[in-house]
Design goal:
CATH class: Alpha Beta
Radius of gyration: 18 Å
Number of domains: 1
Order of helices and strands: EHEHEHHEHEEHEEEHEEHEHH
CATH superfamily: NAD(P)-binding Rossmann-like Domain
Number of helices: 10
CATH architecture: 3-Layer(aba) Sandwich
Strand content: 15-25%
Shape: globular
CATH topology: Rossmann fold
Structural class: alpha/beta
């Protein structure tokens, strides 16, 4: 298959390019932001031509910045997805659109189903929801939305790399213990996205919404302790606190645990438990790149 990866310079985008590059049966075009502005309709139509699958990881990812610049954020996360979906429809390509747990309001007490009601709390979530709706409306037979959350990986800054950086500069760290979610290794997600694309091409995976997060759940406090333990650091240096101590411009859902029923329906295993992927991702002597 011929893949186009948008946002190929980001954390997940770089992992996708690496996964695809290791599979000689596939061809990959890596479109960084400098090479492809997904808000440029003409450029998108030209870039999609000749590809079988588009993996869109390009996004406005500054959640707090989106609160102050909602129109600009929505242009990237929502309106630009219309360009991608239209181009995929015109050229006969499948689209895998990355979305977020932030389309939910976080009031649930059990994992959100893929068809659960959406109610975003912040501008970032509202923009990403518009992108989801574009895919399901314009590509009912060839569009896939994969919601993910709490991503960390080797490329770019993220919660795990921040904890390791702060470990060398502070004796103790206060980390919130009242937000629940699923830490997800970006490389593991990249492998699953490629598997989903392959299953879609073979007619085994129905279009629609999938949840691309690791199994299990924890809090940011629990993740920080696990990271410290994995790297041979004293987890008791991590102290629990509440979200009220760290007020942010964009409200965050307190419960972001997602269910994974659609993977089973497609004959694909969901991602592994977050503890296992954390072990796979990093070793005590090999921290993530800054």
């Amino acid at each position: 298959m011929r893949f186009l990866v948008t946002g190929a310079g980001g954390m997940l985008g770089r992992d996708l390019v690496d996964v695809l590059a290791a599979r000689p049966e596939h061809q990959v075009t890596a479109a960084t932001r400098a090479k492809l502005d997904i808000t440029d309709r003409a450029a998108v139509y030209s870039a999609v031509a000749g590809h079988d699958v588009v993996l869109n990881t390009a996004a406005w990812t500054d959640v707090d910045g989106a609160e102050a610049h909602e129109s600009a954020a929505t242009t990237v996360n929502g309106h630009a997805v219309v360009h991608l979906a239209d181009a995929c429809a015109a050229h006969g390509a499948r689209l895998l659109q990355l979305s977020t747990d932030y389309v939910f309001d976080g009031t649930a007490t059990t994992p959100y189903r893929e068809d659960g009601p959406t109610a975003p709390l912040n501008a970032y979530g509202r923009g990403k929801l518009l992108g989801e709706q574009a895919v399901t409306r314009l590509l009912p037979d060839t569009g896939y939305v994969v919601r993910t959350a709490w991503l960390y990986g080797a490329h770019g800054r993220n919660f795990v790399s921040t904890m390791l950086d702060l470990a060398g500069r502070r004796d103790t760290l206060d980390v919130v213990d009242d937000q629940h979610g699923q830490p997800t290794w970006s490389y593991a997600l990249a492998r699953h996205l490629v598997a989903l694309a392959e299953a879609a091409r073979a007619g085994r995976a129905a279009p629609g919404i999938y949840h691309g997060t690791c199994a299990g759940e924890t809090t940011w406090y629990g993740l920080a302790r696990a990271v410290f333990t994995r790297h041979g650091l004293d987890p008791d240096r991590i102290r629990p606190t509440t979200s009220a101590r760290f007020v942010r411009p964009a409200p965050r859902p307190t419960y972001s645990v997602l269910g994974h029923g659609r993977w089973v329906e497609a004959g694909l295993p969901p991602l592994a438990d977050w503890h296992a992927t954390l072990v796979d991702a990093f070793t005590p002597t090999d921290p993530p790149s800054p």
